[in-house]
Amino acid sequence: MANLIQIKRSLTTATASALANGELAFTANGDHLFIGSNGVTIAIAGKLNPGTLTANQALVANTTSGIDKIITANAVVTTLTANGTTGTAGQILNSNGTVAYWADPASSSFTITGETGSDTFNTGESLAFAAANGISTAVTNSTVTFSVDTGSTLTVNTAGIHVNTANLSVATSQLTGDVALGSGTSGNYVATITAGNGISGSAASESNAVTIAVVANNGIVSNTSGVFAKAANGISVDAAGINVTAGDGLTANATGVHVGAANGISVAADAVGLTTGSTLTVNSTGVHVNSALSITDLSLSGNLTVLGTLTTIDTTNLTVQDSLIELANGNSSTDVLDVGLYGQFGSSGAKFTGLFRDAKALYWINSRTNNDC
Questions:
Q1: Cα separations (Å) of 355 from 307, 310, 315, 325, 334?
Q2: How far apart are the first and last CA of the chain?
């Protein structure tokens, strides 16, 4: 026998109440189907009339996962996603006819800057182009035209501004700047050009072409760019001035060039000297080691070569890392030297013992005797 699902029914009750967990109820007053859940009655199906969505209610999509149309009187939107993103602060929602997307809004103002002053232009305002002396303006079809107001002596065309071919007469009082005179200029406008100290070139007639040049002596270079101090060994030149290039041992500052003192070097107002200790002497012939040289500790990182006839090592302990010690160097051709080691012992009188090779006997001898080995 098939299981039966029982559903409570009502023709008048709008909302079912007191439903047990999983218990179903249908009311014809609104055509809604309810289910009980933990003491709460929840509408799960039925006819929905236009109104306000409440908790656990949602919009239903069509077969293409879309909602054909939503009409709201007042919509409160917490998150709006367009083309896969929610955009950033200040962006607006745009459409290109195919998809919607977030974009920054167009600027509503921009800054206008002139040779003097600046201003901010806002959308909706009028931008005026003011005329000035000799300049007129006109605006037509979103185009601004600037024109030069010419008098009787000027002509303006696409090639530029030109002085009319008729002679132009200008009073001296009207000139406040420089005037470039062409080759056809007449009149005695150049009387005499005379060179001064460090300058070459002169003329006494307006018909002469004059070249004025700087006379550059030692340490000075003159060319089309200007006059410059010339750098040389130990001297550098930059935009700030002429500088002494100080190498090791030298210091250059605002007071001059100085020799720097260091360990063993002393500097005085008139000389540079060596600071010597008890073992060195400095005089006019050079630097000398004193005849009695005493050194407490001596470490050599290189080789030590002793050229004297006697080397005495007066030490309590002698440690030699070399496992083979060479004796009788140079005895390879004559073989006349005895080779070996000996030591002194004895509490009453000197006695000697040693291990040596007798050059005559040609064998090694271990000796302990009162005589010399």
A1: 27, 22, 22, 14, 21
A2: 133
How far CA 56 is from CA of 41, 42, 51, in Å, comes to 11, 8, 14
Q: What is the rounded CA–CA span in Å between residue 180 and residue 201? A: 21
Model pTM greater than 0.85? no
Distance CA 28, CA 31 (A): 5
Burial group, residue 16, by CB count within 10 angstroms (0-12, 13-18, 19+): buried
172 SS3 class? helix
> 227: which DSSP letter?
E
Q: For residues 368 and 362, give the distance between their C-alpha atoms in angstroms, rounded to a whole number.
A: 19
Q: Which residues contact 154 (CB under 8 A, 6 or more apart)?
A: 148, 161, 162, 163, 164
Average pLDDT of each block of 10 consecutive residues along the chain (373 residues)?
Answer: 78 84 88 88 76 66 70 80 87 88 83 86 81 84 82 76 66 61 62 72 65 75 77 77 74 75 73 73 78 75 86 86 86 82 81 83 68 52
Query: Using CA atoms in the order 174, 179, 185, 189, what is the torsion angle rounded to 10 degrees?
Result: 80
239 in Cβ contact with 252 (< 8 Å):
no
